[in-house]
Design a protein that fits this description.
The protein has 373 residues and is an alpha+beta fold. Helices cover 42% and strands 18% of the residues. Helix 1 packs parallel to helix 4 and helix 5 crosses helix 11. Bound molecules: phenylalanine. The site of phenylalanine has 11 residues, from strand 10 and strand 11.
Amino acid sequence: MAASVDKTLAEQSVLSAEQVAALFGEVHAEAEADLRGVLNEKQFEEFRNHWLGRKAGVVTKITDNWLKPAPGDLKKAVGQEFNKFKVALEAVIKERRAAIEAGAEEVASAKDRVDLSLPGVVRPLGSRHLIRQVFQEIEDIFFSIGFSVVEGPEIETPYYNFEALNIPEHHPVRDDMDTFYMELPKNAPGQLLLRTHTSPMQIRTMEKQKPPVRVIVPGRVYRRDNPDATHSFAFHQVEGLAVDTDITFCDFTGTIEYFVKQFFGANVKTRFRPSYFPFTEPSVEFDVSCVFCGGSGTTASGTCGKCKGAGWIELFGAGMVDPAVYGFVGYDPKKVSGFAFGIGIDRLAMLKYGIDDIQAFFQNDVRFLKQFP
Ligand code: PHE
């Protein structure tokens, strides 16, 4: 029969010291079994209440139901066994409490612990964008023949983007430019626009500096073009300008040819065709022999898709600086002459690196970027 702490010893027919010891043995075993189920703080609290609770805990009940009403001859034995039991109970409780605290600490410290055996986090190094790399290549080539590099604002006034380049207000080439104008407050002193080419820097440079001038201007330009494989509303140009007292058309073609051969290789051929720009006279378009078909217009699979069979690819606009432009910057057109060119960088990069979609430059897909470390 299991010991009951709700009944007196007499009610349980416990009359001898041996029976008292056996009874406490049972209680002790029960306490230990109970304690084994205690795994955390909450269960530990419940255990304490059940065994040590002041009002209805087992220890209180033993005091009230077993010890106090015990007959005189049994009292001593009950007192002794009870004390033994309390000491033992305290000892196992202490042990368990320490185990639980240690466990809790272990759980907590596992959270903040740094596992030094884990592999490190590799942060991949970025690289310069292909357009930047091509800018650098071009800058290096022109730098080696005496040009310096200047940069200018992407937001321009119509004066620098058009007027001073000999493009007056109602000149039809403005239509070709499909310009982005800024929305400005009504009381703004004048219009502003995203520059449609890097040519405004020709004017800004000559305003600041007397001849000789030899500069290139790498930069981003904007036109209201609908995006497709060869068009983007933002793209890149390198402007070139050389002005001095004795610059001839030969200097011009020689410089361009030198650049193209440095950039694409000695085998590439160049040609120019007459063209028109309001700020150059005469004006030309520069072509290079197609780097994909070697200028033949055909490949193993038929007509070359890149030059469409022409054998030539249009590279940039250029020309001798129109004397009218000198009037805007205070140069004497009778004393100076020079040439200017505007290279489309995206097209150049696409040709050199075999890229068939200009959008790849702007999407910044790392799978694309990684191919040009
Ligand atoms: N600015 C012209 C364009 O964007 C290119 C150019 C530059 C032509 C310099 C002649 C001289 O189309």
